[in-house]
Design goal:
Blueprint (H helix, E strand, L loop, with lengths): L1 H19 L1 E4 L2 E4 L2 H19 L14 H8 L2 H30 L4 H29 L1 H21 L3 H33 L2 H31 L1 H38 L8 H4 L1
Keywords: Membrane, Transmembrane, Transmembrane helix
Pfam family, one: MFS_1_like
InterPro entries: MFS_assoc_dom, MFS_MFSD6, MFS_trans_sf
């Protein structure tokens, strides 16, 4: 969560400074984005200096991770479905985080508006992280994921038809809330798996790799190709339709798996009355 606070503050700061410094090129005022590289160098330098004084202690453990058991658990019906949904949330996050601000620029947003959008997105994501505990406790992580996906549909379709840059700023900010809630739900999901197989760090690392690595990577790569072919609004519309399909798949899979588990449980717990012996009855 504190990383999101840093990103939000940096976005407001850098976006505001860039909006103050413009240069004239061939009679046209151009934004000087070179300033962002100076901020980047300064932040990296501060991070390196801070890391030099960090003391990290690793717990001693002789337990070896049984990756076969971890993979086998994730290949079970419900867990496999949730892993695919986790990957899809990573795809959405990769697309919006890397191309959302560019689209705001295409809509005519000024640099300070882009800074506000980026800052609000990460500030609102802090709210998502903070409120995720109460939300998941009340609804469960599955319902929270389904609700986030439902709102994602509205956001993606909204971006497909938006014309006002300020409305785009609002939609971009809402996505931050969904990103915080969805990832927190994915972490809780990994916790339920680790309870069965142990190896909490390995399980969470696997889920994080699927979301942040595979999902975000696919989102950035495929979105860039699709945007180049059909355009940004059409890409958002496509993601809106895809999100509807994923939500339908998620709900139907859950219902089918739950129905099957209920039948198995009912069969295992069913019993038959043993007829009484007449002699004993007398």
């Amino acid at each position: 969560m504190w990383g999101e606070v840093g990103v939000a503050g940096g976005s407001f700061l850098v976006g505001g400074v860039i909006s103050l410094y413009k240069s004239e090129v061939c009679g046209e005022m151009m934004k000087n984005y070179n300033i962002s590289f100076y901020f980047f160098a300064a932040f990296i330098t501060l991070t390196i200096i801070n890391c030099l004084f960090l003391e990290v202690k690793y717990p001693e453990s002789s337990n070896r991770v049984n990756f076969a058991a971890v993979i086998s658990e994730f290949l079970r019906g419900r867990n496999l479905m949730l892993i695919l949904v986790t990957c899809y949330f990573g795809i959405l996050n990769g697309m919006e985080e890397n191309f959302g601000l560019w689209y705001l620029d295409d809509l005519g947003a000024q640099p300070y508006m882009i800074g506000i959008a980026s800052g609000l997105r990460f500030s609102v994501s802090c709210l998502g992280y903070y409120s995720s505990g109460a939300c998941i406790d009340r609804l469960g992580f599955f319902s929270t994921l389904a609700g986030c996906l439902l709102v994602y549909i509205v956001v993606m379709l909204g971006f497909a038809f938006v014309l006002n840059p300020w409305l785009g700023v609002a939609l971009h900010s809402i996505q931050g809330l969904l990103y915080g809630l969805a990832w927190s739900s994915c972490v809780v999901f990994s916790g339920t798996v680790s309870v069965k197989v142990g190896f909490y760090s390995a399980v969470q690392g696997f889920v994080g790799g699927v979301h942040w690595g595979l999902g975000v990577g696919i989102g950035v790569l495929t979105s860039g190709v699709i945007i180049n072919r059909i355009g940004m609004p059409q890409t958002y519309f496509m993601y809106g339709m895809t999100s509807i399909a994923v939500l339908t798949f998620m709900l139907l899979s859950y219902w089918l798996i739950k129905s099957r588990e209920d039948k198995v449980e009912a069969k295992e717990t069913s019993y038959q009355l043993v007829p009484q012996n007449k002699d004993n009855a007398e």
